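name: query_chain
kind: protein
chains: 1
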Amino acid sequence: MAEAAEAAEAAEGSGGGGGDGGGPGRAALLAAVVDAFLEKLLAAGSYERFAHCYRRFYRAQPHVTRSIHEQLLAQLRTAVTEEIQEVKKEGNLEELFRALDAIVEESRGSEEPAWRPSGIPEADARSALVPFLLKQRCFLSRELSRGREENRAAAAAVLEGRERIAALRRDIAERRAAWQALSREQRALTAALQPLQEGRTEPLGADTGGR
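structure:
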């Protein structure tokens, strides 16, 4: 079991591998731990121990004893391997390990410490929600400031537009007043020139009638 423990410590120390210098992933480390455990398990049932337990049979049939031991170890290896594979398949461990390796890889460049539960629900909820809520508050504060700036810019644009409209209205009023004054002067001039035009045409008519 010492080799299995060492493999487990290596898995923890390397963070599961899968990206740090091309190290093995958690699935490969689990396979290494299982192989080390299986080898230790089979080593515990060595031929010498088996023969010592069945000394009379070993003395009578040593070759048969060895054959039985080899078959026993082969069947034990097959049974343990199949059982482990079944557990991995039912738990979808390889897929979960790959997903965990991907999460670890994505978080390598993060400067924020990893969250760990404390066992107190209220404290865990605060530790998980407070940073998120603070980020949301900062985000909303920035959005509110930007909205206020946009509103001030829009109000200034509206005020400028109103001033332009007022100036345009004044210009139109001035032009209309000037046009009306010009029209009045034109009518007055026309009225003043009309008697002169009539006076010029009457003598011509009188001279023609005398003849």
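note: The chain has a mean pLDDT of 79.
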